[in-house]
Amino acid sequence: MLLFAIGNVGWTILGALAVACVGLVVLAVVSPRRFVRFIVRPILEMLYRKQVVGGENLPRDGGAVLICNHVSWLDGILLLWLLPRNARFIVDGGNFDGRVARYLASAFDTILMTANPKSIARALKTGREGLLQGDQIAIFPEGTITRSGQLQAFRPGVTKLLKGNDVPIVPMWLEGMWGSVFSFSKGKFFWKLPSLPRRSLALHIGKPLPHDTPLEKMRSEVQRLGAEAMIAARQQMPVLPQRIIRTWKRRGGRLKAADSSGAEVGGRQMLMRTIILRRLITREVLDSRDSEPTVGILLPPSVAAVATNVALAFDRRTSANLNYTVSSEVLNQCIDAAGIKHVLTSAKFMEKMDFDLNTNLVLLEELKDKVSLLDKLVGVAVAYLLPSPIVDRMLGLQKISCDDLLTVIFTSGSTGTPKGVMLTHANISHNVEAIDKAVRLSTEDVVLGVLPFFHSFGYAVTLWAVQTLGPAGIYHFNPLDARQVGKLAEKYGATVLLGTPTFLRGYLRRIEPKQFAKMDVVVAGAEKMPADLFEAFEKKFGVRPVEGYGTTELSPLVSVNIPPTRSYAKYQPDRSEGSVGRPLPGISAKVISPDDGVELAAGQDGMLLVTGPNVMKGYMGREDLTAEAVQDGWYVTGDIANVDKDGFLHITGRLSRFSKIGGEMVPHIRIEEELDRLLGEGQDPDEDQLRVCVTAVPDEKKGERLIVLHLPTDKDPDTLRQGLRDAGLPNLFVPSRDSFIEVAEIPLLGTGKLDLKGARDAAAEAVGE
């Protein structure tokens, strides 16, 4: 009886399975779409977490064109899973050769096309007919999967699709697939290990756009959604103090940091020293975290400066690297603004300085004698014995929020009193991730760290990016000391250099080609790169610099041209000389009219606004200035720029570097470029230097008067003025003969940037204003 009962149960199960199989076959034939969803949906639910933001912006019925970024091979399937209504995709038929692929395509009424004009025309015609019938037609306007994570240029197919239709355009952004095995991260599809066990996906859907929206405006809206998505996902960004622990442990005994004082430290040794320093500072110097959240640092770029900054981060304090190139008065203003009680510095460094500061100076050398046996044992245990998660718990790093302050960086003061820019853990972490995607720093790289840590680029890149992404950092306190920079580059085999055009000019004159023999990447920022400097640098050192753009308030990097040797994009342009590159992933830039705030078309100059997770938390203690600078989440840069049709950003000037003369805006930089060319004629490119600066003083009749500060030259003002006219500049752009002022040197800040306030003051003094 028991065997009979079991047999009946078995037959029942087999019968049920047979019926289910027949049902699935019938479903596969009768309703392919439901069949595929039935099979695929559970798999996607297991692999991904999903979120749809702005679903109310999708039309409930009727035709619409959906446009979205394209990051991975799965984007189409994922969008079909995330969207409430079916969307008919226009895709490359070459990816649907097999029977299974064509079955999947037919299940969702996918429109296939091949790379020939007739096929493309048929696909567009089918899409237009679908729109008239009330279908949602989806398209990836980039035309291909991004190789860099950046949004590529939009192709005109979407505008052709809309021809004869007045349906809305719905912009979308799919966030979460970059880094997956289906994306091109790490330079390859598929052949890499998954970076996350279960990825979180978010589809951000924007408000519908009119059918006649220009292509560049469509792209701008999709990019804005990308910034919105990254801001919403900022809590998922790596916590840098946790990440640096893992990086230093993995580095082991290999060189991780060195400087011109002779210090050389491996990864685990760096961790041990930093842990010991953190214990000393908290025990011997600082008050409680609540009463002393911000601590000052007055150190040049060095191994000690790296350890000090990271030690404060390990203690969940906010660091403020102070600018040692300014006066005591300015330093005290910064100290008061940040409420700094203690400044960590070095006796050797302070011997060279003449500061009178209103705070307690702590000399790091004096802490060495206070290291106990327990301090050493804890340092060894953390660096060599304990797993990273346990170290995180010991230090309380799991308590760090993405919006907690990591640092306060005071602006350069090029236009006045420095302001304390508050940057969060998420701000700097996003920039580190962006640098990793753009420059792809590896464990084999050696980065020359000549930018001071009070400079936002130096802090975010040569400190945190270098120390968390794997390469070794070689530090020197004076970026203008070309001879020592060359020696360090040769000794350690430097491969990456980040600097300003001013620094590069000095290196051209004083560094031998053999010293930069291994140099592979040179990125310049902070000021416009002269065209001849590209050529001269490449001719001498064999590496062509690329330009990037950023500001302290944006943590700082916004965009960069991808260096040629780090580019994966064989068929996608990822650099455009003369531009500062495309905005990095998660960052959106737009150009508006300064008069009415309307977003301008491609190629039109206007005010540059930037949004993304890199936008500062605000100016410390200056809510009024913060409200002026950050409007509806967009940082108003003060720079005049344009975005070309391919999405590359061109900085054409700064609002403060324009003069309004006779009712017209006159750009200082445009005049400077021509004067620099004229002054440099007949000179050896290796002797190139900053020769000229154009500024202005008030003028009763015309509003402002142009003033030219220039180094000694054998060319008289009349020759230079004629040269400006010959270059096609309007008469309004040509300074008067008595407006040419010879100076011994052009005013510069410690960061290498032009000192605009110093230039204005020098001009005013020279003309008696």
UniProtKB/TrEMBL annotation:
InterPro entries: AMP-bd_C_sf (IPR045851), AMP-binding_CS (IPR020845), AMP-dep_synth/lig_dom (IPR000873), ANL_N_sf (IPR042099), Plipid/glycerol_acylTrfase (IPR002123). The chain crosses the membrane at residues 12-31. One of its GO terms (biological process) is fatty acid metabolic process. One of its GO terms (molecular function) is medium-chain fatty acid-CoA ligase activity. SMART domains: PlsC (SM00563). It holds the Pfam family AMP-binding. The keyword Ligase applies. Residues 64-177 form the Phospholipid/glycerol acyltransferase domain. Keywords: Ligase, Membrane, Transmembrane, Transmembrane helix. It comes from the Bacteria. Belongs to the ATP-dependent AMP-binding enzyme family. This is Bifunctional protein Aas. The lineage of its organism: Bacteria, Pseudomonadati, Planctomycetota, Planctomycetia, Pirellulales. The gene is aas.
